[in-house]
Each structure stands twice: as C-alpha cells, then as structure tokens.
C-alpha cells in the first residue's frame, strides 16, 4: 500500500525532513546553503534464486545489527475469497503460528523466545504474508520455523474456536467505530462488487470457519510458484540459500491455482452515502475515488500530486482546513495503490456545525489541483518529503524486506527501489495538474459521511442527496 499519511509526516517533520507550515511562512535567512542533491536509494545487492518448485528467493546481506528479517509473501489474499466467506483468508493467516504438525502454539512461542525472535502473519487484499525476525546467529532456526508454520499448520480445533471468538468480539468493537464504518462505506462506493470491497470478516464468514475449511483454504492458497521469500540481515547468502532449499524445497502446490483477480474499474459513478450515528458530536468525512494499479505510469506523478494536496503539514488541505479555517485538527489525504487497483482518499473529521463548510472547502481544494498549478516551492517540498520518508524508512531491515515484497506483489522489479526517488524528482507541475484533472475532479469523488443526520442534514441541501448506508 502507498500512503503519505499525517503520521509519517509527523515523523519526517521531527527529523527535519520537511518544514512545518509555520516554518514555511516565516522568512528564511538569506545565507542558508541550497538543498543538497537528492540521493537515490541504491538497489540492494540481491542474490536471487528460483527453486525447482517455483519459489522465488531474494537474499540481501547487510552489515549492522546481528539480526535477520524474513518476509514471505504469497499471492492470494482476501480478494480471492468468495462473496459468501469474505476475508476468511485473514482468519486462516492469523492461525498459522497456533500449531503445526510438529509444534503446539506454546512450543512455537518458546522457540521464538529462545532465538530472540518475533512473528506475525496476516492477509491483505492481495496476499498472505509472514513477517519474522531473530538474531542472525539463529537464521537457520528462524527459517525452519517460518517454513513449518507456512507449510504445515494444523489448525487445532481449540485454537480455531478461540480465534473465532476473538474475531467476533473484534467485529463488534469495529462495528461501533466510526472510522471503520466510514471505510466500509467508502470501499463499497469505490469498489462496488469488485473483490477489493470484501476485505473485512463478517459474522457469517467467521461462524462458517472450521479447522477443515481453513486447512482446505490453506492448501489452495499457499503455493510456492506464487510466493516470494525475502531474507535480509547479517547473513551469508550461500549458507542461507542452502537452508532455504532444505526447508522450502519440498513445498508443493496442491490442485489448480486460484483464478487471478481482475483489475478494479476506475470509471465508477461517484456516490454520496450517509451512515447514521445518532448523537454523534462530529462527522467523519471520507472523500475519494478509485485509481489505477502501481504499475500504471500515473503512480509516481499521482503520488506527488497527493502529497501536494494533503500529504504533509505544508499541504493544501492542512493549510486550508486546519490552519486557516480551523475545522479539523488532523485532515489529510492518502494514496492507497495495490496490485489490481487503488484509491485516493481524504480523511477529515470535523464538528457537526462545519460539515457542509468542510465539504465545500474540499471541493474547492480538489478543483484547485486542476486549475492552480503547484508552485515551485510546493513541488519541492512534496518531493523532498516523499524522498526523505522513503529513504529513512527503508534503512530499517524489516521495512526493506516489506518494501521489496510489496513491489514484487504489485509487479514491480527490485530496481524500482532506486528509480522511485529519482523519478519522483522529475515530476513537473504540469504532470501534477494533469493528475488533478484525472483523479481529483470534485464531481468524481464519492463522499461518505458518518454522523448524526439531524445535525448535518440541513447543511447538505446544496451538495446533493445522500443515500443511507449501513456497513
């Protein structure tokens, strides 16, 4: 996923990578040296292998902390689930480390503790992922544990029952969360019947899960020819590859591969949806539209355009809605791009009495992306923010492994790690304006409101009719 979020901007500002809006407005000393030249992130020295069973393996030795990070990505996430059992892959993935043919959940936890390790498994829209780490001296043991949990989970009945109970409880909590409600409505508006809209567990899909159904789902999805294994750390590539061959070489696909998910449509009719939340003192606004996948040529200029619009402290949304109008403390916009589609999204939570005024401002700001070219300073700040956060984040081993896996899932080569920063620096104001015309036209944006209808209905007459929606 690609997001230049407010949280990321906070980190960047703290480290001096980007100036805040107040600092930008203040006059700068005349004798300051110019910005230094951008430094692209070098392509890591990757030793690449493809095992006879089709598993792709990338090994990246690095000096530094005596630690190893492992990322296993398997194409086949929640978008591959059928409509009757949405997101059941997420439930399956959460149980991978709760017992294998050889080890109990307790024994797995004890092994991780003994090697200074940690482990997490989850499923997103596109993939099933396992992230694990340990002391570099225990790389072989970590790989053996990842292989065991990925290839031989047993889905013990007791653990399945517990996970189902926890998932049902989490669902109840989520259903009362206005942010969750707004995103469910937004996914419905943007993706419609496309499988990307079915990325959340439902009560029916949780209740339908059994150890047998989860085992069947695992056997269908976990396929070596649709998987990438990334290993990063203070390791010897040749030695690690021998271990990989031993642990993963016997992995075999079972049955036919699932059909690939089609690309999500980008030309969809904008919707206006209202999720009633009686008595709410604020309105949660979500405002956006679908976009093309990462491999589309629009990805990089759209990333810059989104950053100008709402990706940092000095963005247009922050300056207008927060600093000038005072409607919201932390408004921002994001760009979420995946293998088969994505979306732009503005997130603005406001008090009830300025809901209509905020929507009017968003419309002006989005229209301005097409009519008001980014100034040289806006463009420079956006590029440096993108580059700074990107370069900083990918110095971390776990983030590097995750980035490489994400690019692979989206059909991008490893070299994209370095060309991303370089190509971002080449984006022009004309390209940003073109993205404004293509992706930020106000009439193309779906609008989701979660709030008290009695408090906000009178403000919506000039905006149009909103359809009630229950996530």
Describe this structure in words.
This protein is an alpha+beta fold and 471 residues long. The chain has two domains: 6-24 and 263-468, 2-Layer Sandwich (Cytochrome Bc1 Complex, Chain A, domain 1); 54-248, Metalloenzyme, LuxS/M16 peptidase-like (Cytochrome Bc1 Complex, Chain A, domain 1, 2-Layer Sandwich). 42% of the residues lie in helices and 17% in strands. It is built from 18 helices and twelve strands. Strands 1-2-6-3-5-4 form a six-stranded mixed beta sheet, sandwiched between helices. The chain is globular, with a radius of gyration of 23 Å.
List key phrases describing it.
Cytochrome Bc1 Complex, Chain A, domain 1; six-stranded mixed sheet; 18 helices; alpha+beta; 2 domains; disordered N terminus; 471 residues; single chain
Which fold name is given in CATH as the topology of the largest domain?
A: Cytochrome Bc1 Complex, Chain A, domain 1
Share of β-strand residues: 15-25%
Number of domains: 2
Tell me the CATH superfamily of the largest domain.
Metalloenzyme, LuxS/M16 peptidase-like
Question: Which architecture of the largest domain per CATH?
Answer: 2-Layer Sandwich
Number of strands: 12
Keywords: Signal
InterPro entries: Metalloenz_LuxS/M16 (IPR011249), MPP/UQCRC_Complex (IPR050361), Pept_M16_N (IPR011765), Peptidase_M16_C (IPR007863)
Organism: Dyella japonica
Domain Peptidase M16 C-terminal: 209-384
Question: What is the element layout, followed by pairings?
Answer:
Elements: H1 6-14, H2 21-25, E1 47-50, E2 56-61, E3 67-75, H3 88-94, H4 105-114, E4 118-123, E5 127-135, H5 139-151, H6 157-175, H7 178-191, H8 203-208, H9 211-221, E6 227-233, H10 237-248, E7 272-276, E8 282-291, H11 299-310, H12 316-324, E9 332-337, E10 342-351, H13 355-371, H14 376-393, H15 397-409, H16 416-424, H17 429-439, E11 446-451, H18 453-456, E12 467-468
Parallel strand pairs: 2-6, 7-11, 7-12
Antiparallel strand pairs: 1-2, 3-5, 3-6, 4-5, 8-10, 8-11, 9-10
Helix pairs in contact: 3-9, 5-10, 11-14, 11-17, 12-13, 13-17
